Amino acid sequence: MIQTWQMVLNFDAHLPDLVSMHANMVYFIVFGVIFLQIGILPFFFLPSNPFLFVCGAVWAASHLSISLLLVVLTAAAILGNLCGYGLGKTLGQIFFVNYLKWPNQTTLDKTRVFYHKHGEKGFLFCLFLPVVRTIAPFLAGITQMVFYKFVRSASAGSALWVLTCVLMGYFFGNIPIIMHHLGTFTLAGLAVVLLVVICKKSWEYFNKLN
After folding, report:
1. Backbone angles phi, psi at 145, to 5 degrees
2. Helix (H, G, I), strand (E, B) or coil at 170
């Protein structure tokens, strides 16, 4: 039981063996990992950024199609977001809000306002953040974020996340310093993107004042 649990928590470390032994099934396996982690709350602990990075590195060293991998993982992320949204809109309202009283009405109202104002921008980057990537679509469903806006932003965010992490692994996966400090590099990259967005908004704001 302990060995099984350790294998689940360190699933990305076993990916090279899975590719060599189950090449025909590996696309279904990686699809399932990403879909479950984003779409189903109890699976938030599954590997994510390192997993996608390792996928890219493993595919670079194999005969498998990187293009197909990108399509499969992006589809898994989008469908996971849609599943989380659907569960939030149905189960979230019935069980969490009405029965568990989570989130409470005040928090729910604040969250609804946040999603209305910043939800689309938030979903471009939330997949890079552990736990947040699982909770965000669920809360979007609970607060009933406008569906077409959710789909648009979640799809763009899914593509950005998958392309960034997988292609980093594909091109730089054999460089030890990047492999050993993947989390730091990922957060640094996200910080740069956010800084650019903040600077752009600040520039627009000051231009309006002038």
Report:
1. -55, 145
2. helix
8 A C-beta contact, residue 91 and residue 85: no
Q: Where are the alpha helices (DSSP H) in the chain?
A: 2-9, 15-21, 26-39, 49-60, 66-87, 105-125, 132-142, 147-172, 176-180, 182-209
Kindly report, residue by residue over 112-153, the tens digit of the pLDDT: 787 777 777 888 888 888 888 999 999 899 888 889 999 999
DSSP assignment, residue 174? T
pLDDT in tens, 28-75: 989 999 999 999 988 888 877 788 988 898 898 888 899 999 999 999
Residue 110 CB partners (closer than 8 Å, separation 6+): none
Between 1-5, 13-17, 164-168, the lowest mean confidence (pLDDT) is in 1-5
Which two structure tokens, joined as six digits, stand for 150?
């959710």
**Residues 85/150, Cβ–Cβ less than 8 Å:** yes
Contacts for 188 with CB less than 8 Å, ≥ 6 apart = none
Contact 108, 181 (CB under 8 A): no
SS3 91: helix
Angstrom CA distances, 102 to 40, 80, 94, 105, 108, stand at: 17, 22, 11, 8, 8
CB 115 within 8 A of CB 139: yes
The tokens of 147 are what? 């569906």
